Protein 1
Amino acid sequence: MLMVHCRSKDDDLGAHGLAVGESFEWSFDPSWLGETLFWCSLAVEDKRLSFVAYYEGDMYTEYWYVHDDGVYGQTRHANATFYEAPWRRVSPRQY
């Protein structure tokens, strides 16, 4: 099971367990100051990664996909996919 935990400075979306093929999504109103930032932490077995899922200056990334080698983003308009972050292995003490 993949654990996903996303948050911003003001909102913690909580931890969500996802099975293969499931998705997690949310919506929000960006800050009128232009400072909205969401980051997500992912965990599966002994692997972890964190990445910025949304920031006000990036109006193009709409989807994030988790693969065996890390997380990928997909742009809204160009429909291009890019590699965002690799997994890192952790020892049991780092859980």
Protein 2
Amino acid sequence: MSKLMSLLLSPEKNPLARMHKESVSRRLKHYGLRFEDLYDQKEDLDIKEALARLPREIVDARNQRLKRAMDLSMKHEYLSDDLQARQTPFRSYLRDMLALL
């Protein structure tokens, strides 16, 4: 990645990228999702393979987060504030497995 692209996309260096990351984080916390939960295994074969290689409990936790988010969305509700405060939307569980592929 070029130095300019790195500067533009890095939340640590670009205030607009930081604002965008905070906005995405806030929206993910409303539903208790992680950023990697949004990757679609039907669209990307690498995601499908990485999920197949992960331990069952990690995949089950991902599926549970997705089900809870769909349920909250259908009810037009958000997680309670105390649950939102405990969410970690950018904690990765797929990155290491994708790096192996």
Protein 3
Amino acid sequence: MIQTELKTIKQFQKRKIQVEKELDDLKEDLRNTERKHQETLRRLEGKFFEEKVQHICINKYCVY
């Protein structure tokens, strides 16, 4: 009986290590995705601002 419990504990410990590694991998993936999202958001906001300025200048006859 003790051998069975010890085996169960060892299996649990192995599975715990696997799950913790999976969690660490997912956290890293999430950080990378968030960083890429922020970069994309900044780029799109910049494009939007440039287009808005161009649109305003076209309507008010701006010349640069």
Protein 4
Amino acid sequence: AKSSKPKRGKGKSSKKKAKKVVKEVDILSPAAMLNAYYICHNAAACLELRGFPWPGSPKKKGKKKK
């Protein structure tokens, strides 16, 4: 007994995915500094948001859903 649902193929897909181009970003550029001025509360928060956390830092809690 065959089902009417189409079967999904296993293994690699024949379609080629486009590679993401990773652009080098300057975190000390004027635009980045202006952004950091508005979103960061202190130097530690600025570094953590830029991807440089320090060991033992308190983890940020997410917002609670209602």
